[in-house]
Fold this sequence. Notes:
- The protein has helices at residues 3-6, 41-48, 59-64, 72-94, 101-106, 109-130, 135-138, 142-156, 209-216, 240-243, and strands at 15-17, 26-27, 30-31, 33-36, 66-71, 224-227, 235-238.
- It is an alpha+beta fold.
Amino acid sequence: MDKYYQKKQAKYGDQNSHRQQGRAIRINGIRVSESEHIQPRAHIILQTKNSHGISPYDNKAYGQSTTIVIPRDMAKIKTNWDNRITQQAQKVIKAGKELPESLKKSLSQEAAYNRTIRARDIAITRREQRGQSTQDLKAISNEMIKNASHLQRKTGYPLKFQKHVDKATPSRFVHPDLKEQILSPKYPVAQKQPPDPKSRSVTQPKINPQDLAAQKQPSSSKGINYTSSTSNNKSISIPPSKIFPNRSWH
């Protein structure tokens, strides 16, 4: 059996790391709950990218971050707002422009907390208009949302990493809330070093075999002395006529 189905069923308001949350709540086989990160992953990544485009908020950080179990209709309202803000920020950054202050505030932790509360209130209003129960929504208090937001920051950004700040991150992309929590990449991109002139190999000139043969030919009719390794290093004189029999010698 899958480990997921071995978990206990979650309850509204549960606050655990995303990986440790219980099974989703279902009614008649339909999923009605969500393990929600108060501050969206995309918003954190946008604000914590370093100069190499890498964010420390990876899959591991996302999984260990604290979430809160909320009704799914509430989560959908919040997620729609979050996605619009993400698209606006990406569009500005892609154009190479500075994020306006209003958009920076929308990416902040405080703004995410406020959006979550508003999403709950709107979900309550919509249900009341349809004559549906709102007990599960009202079980999610402001204090629960605030605490989940605080724990997400605490578990998603371990303090021991905060000193590794990448100074090259463009400050225009970063909200003041996160400037002290931007981390260096796990695998920094190595800077290419220029080749060392001393280590460059020297190209040897091509040698014409005919020129080499001409250099070996003796310039006189005198014999050539060779030292034999098998004759106790004695010098042996060989006449040129025996070395080059086809050449006429005068």
